[in-house]
Amino acid sequence: MQLTQVLSKDCTRRVDACQSKKRVLEIISELAANRLGVSEKEIFDSLFNREKLGSTGIGQGIAIPHGRVENDLPPTAVFIRCDQPIGYDAIDKQPVDLLFALIVPGEENKQYLQILAAAAEKLHNKQICKSLRQAESDEQIYQIITS
């Protein structure tokens, strides 16, 4: 699974003023809603409810929030790089600055897991994470995460 199949340039952002987990989930919801033409609230509620089950912060400054929407829409990803790490209740108790979010249709399972695995594999690479943290533009971030 290529990340370019689910992540677009307009859903890849460097965010400089993000203070909380809630706010970053709102930004993700806004970007995904604009891309998919669905309600920001529906996406936010899905992501937020998933976080209630347990943090998607996987450690080393990385989170992979994900949620499902009832519409029959294509899987869509959002990538956010926060200039200032935020508290996220990650498993290592460290703040998060790299977030790969995934929104999928309610019944999608196989492709959902493949995309999550591809994102996790990419973000497990320390050199890629270093490059993402040093990138100066949305375009650079997109090129690094999708290369």
Automatic annotation (TrEMBL):
Residues covered by the PTS EIIA type-2 domain: 5-147
InterPro entries, sorted: PTrfase/Anion_transptr, PTS_EIIA_type-2_dom, PTS_Nitro_regul, PTS_SugarTrans_NitroReg
Keyword Transferase assigned: yes
Keyword flag Cell inner membrane: no
Superkingdom of origin organism: Bacteria
An example Gene Ontology molecular-function term: protein kinase activator activity
Pfam families tied to this protein: PTS_EIIA_2 (PF00359)
Matches recorded under Gene3D superfamilies: Mannitol-specific EII, Chain A (3.40.930.10)
GO biological process: phosphoenolpyruvate-dependent sugar phosphotransferase system
PANTHER family: NITROGEN REGULATORY PROTEIN (PTHR47738:SF1), PTS SYSTEM FRUCTOSE-LIKE EIIA COMPONENT-RELATED (PTHR47738)
Protein name: Phosphotransferase IIA-like nitrogen-regulatory protein PtsN
Organism: Celerinatantimonas diazotrophica
